[in-house]
Amino acid sequence: MIINIILWLLSVISVTYIEIATKLYVHIWTIALALILVPIFYILIFFLYLLLLLIWSFFINKKEEINKPNKFYYWLIKETCYILISLSRSKIHISGLDKLPSNGRVLIVSNHTSNFDQIVMMKVLKISPIIFVTKPQNENIPIAGAFIHKAGFVTLDRGNDFNAARSISKCIKYIEDDLGHIAICPEGTRSKTGELLNFKAGSYKIAIKSEAPIVVLALSNCNQIHKNFFWKRTDVYFDIVDCLYYENYKSMNSFEIAEKTKNEIRLKLEQRKEESNNELYFI
Fold it and tell me: How far apart are CA 108 and CA 272, in angstroms?
């Protein structure tokens, strides 16, 4: 939010300076002109901000081993996510935040339909840092790849059992050492249809080994954000449907936990879909 405020202030200052320098302020119609120019300057300054981040990313060594989340880089990512959601004109409908534990680190599991899933999570959840488990290829994304590396996001190569085990161990250590919360999509990849894919049981070893609560999150309509970006509002639904404490799942194996959380998310997604259909019916 801080960077967003700075961008708006720079926009207002820029427009004000132009009006003073050109002496346009003497005309009353320039008030309307200023109201048009400020958002335009905001967009231009935002692109300059992205350019700065791009240049910065060239100097980040992505081969460096990160064993502790970097608070500053995490803050930059969170601030940028806030701006992206604002620009996308998304309206996020939130429920279940009261289910979050008041202390201790958690494992967050959610469905995965869009690259905006994590951006929405960063925008909504006030707990920090949230360390996302992501695929190695995401570190090659311009700008974002370098910054998520420095922030301590964990890459998980599911095609390499040894590397995958190391990544899971790293996540467990993050929780046990109180370094951050872990967020993972047990499906392992985005669902292009929106239908839930199989939840991989290995994801839950993070919670089982660390005895951390499992926060079950259902995300609806995130896959529409990039289609509607800037031009049309997107209604996104962010529902924490359950929080399983260690006492709730210690007698279950990872496959049973995966099936339980998948069913909970599936039921919430079906409920949201039914509500959406009803709303369309009554329009």
Answer: 20
